[in-house]
Specification:
Blueprint: E1 6-12, H1 18-29, E2 31-35, H2 54-59, E3 62-63, H3 76-92, E4 96-101, H4 104-112, H5 122-129, H6 135-142, H7 144-149, H8 155-168, H9 172-181, E5 189-195, H10 199-227, H11 242-249, H12 255-280, E6 285-287
Parallel strand pairs: 1-4, 1-5, 2-3, 2-4, 5-6
Helix pairs in contact: 3-4, 5-8, 6-8, 10-11, 10-12, 11-12
Length: 289
């Protein structure tokens, strides 16, 4: 890809101010805001997922917000395909895509691609998932590179590396390197911004926002979502606040208790997001916001 192509990536935890910064940069640079949040793709949950408001969307172009039915199990691969089409269209128009969101896997796919690993035979998968003992040592015998990169306590990723090596005859990074060479942003001039506000202030902001969502119609959103009778295993049903507010609607808990539970779940999610950025996305420009 031409070095003339540019992109801005804005990542950060829930309630860190990503949308406001994205809109400001879109005004400043003639940009188009492209969503990289796994829950903001669902049309049924504008309020509860803090999607940009209609007023925000009227200021600058927004893409990949609320474009998917909650009946869809939207995946990283599907998002990457959609994002590829949108970014290419933005570049053709001579504008700058400003990709913003809180889903780390989306950014990783954007920058590193998705490894096209052949299907691993079920017997190999079962063998390693049921294996006992020091699996990190087993990995070191087969794939020294992966063993050096992975924490000895990260059992899930160690098992995946063992599966891939035995199932394909090649180490995991072979497939990852192939994906990176074809990654969408390969050769693009990229500005990477990570919003990392003070933790205490971030939690307070998230608490206030969840309470405000309830006042602004989140309960009605959840009620309408539940009326669709969707499979509870679908991603949209796992959005923070759905379970908590559904418990109030069913009479299982009081509204104040439901709000407190939603706030707690949000803070726990923020903690996981911050851990992800710290370990998976080094080298980004950190801003306090």
């Amino acid at each position: 890809m031409s070095l003339e192509k540019r992109a801005v990536l804005i990542a950060g935890a829930t309630a860190s101010g990503k949308s406001a910064l994205a809109i400001a940069l879109a005004h400043e640079r003639g940009g188009v805001v492209v969503n990289a949040d796994a829950m903001q793709v669902y049309r049924e949950l504008r309020i509860l997922t803090a999607r940009p408001s209609a007023e925000d969307e009227a200021q600058v172009p927004h893409r990949l917000y609320g474009h998917v039915s909650g009946q869809t199990a939207y995946s990283v691969a599907r998002w990457l395909a959609d994002a590829t089409a949108e970014l290419e269209a933005v570049w053709r128009s001579g504008r700058v895509p400003i990709v913003t969101g809180g889903t780390g896997l989306y950014f990783k796919a954007l920058e590193q691609g998705l490894a096209d690993i052949p299907l691993i035979p079920p017997d190999i998968t079962q063998k390693w998932r049921e294996a006992k003992g020091d699996l990190h040592a087993e990995l070191a015998k087969r794939d020294e590179g992966a063993a050096a990169r992975l924490n000895p306590n990260d059992r899930q990723r160690i098992i995946r590396a063992l599966e891939v090596f035995e199932g394909t005859g090649k180490p995991l990074d072979h497939w990852q390197r192939a994906a990176q060479s074809e990654a969408l942003l390969a050769g693009v001039s990229v500005e990477r911004i990570l919003l990392n506000p003070d933790r205490k202030a971030l939690y307070a902001r998230a608490d206030e926002r969840f309470a405000r969502m309830v006042k602004e119609g989140a309960v009605e959103e959840v009620k309408a979502l539940l009326a669709l009778g969707l499979d509870p295993k679908l991603p949209v049903m796992k959005a923070i606040g759905v379970k908590e507010l559904a418990a109030w609607l069913s009479g299982w808990r009081g509204l104040d208790d439901a709000i407190a539970a939603g706030q707690t779940a949000t803070r726990q999610y923020i903690k996981r997001q911050l851990t992800w950025w710290r370990h998976q996305m080094p080298g980004w420009e950190e801003r306090r916001a």
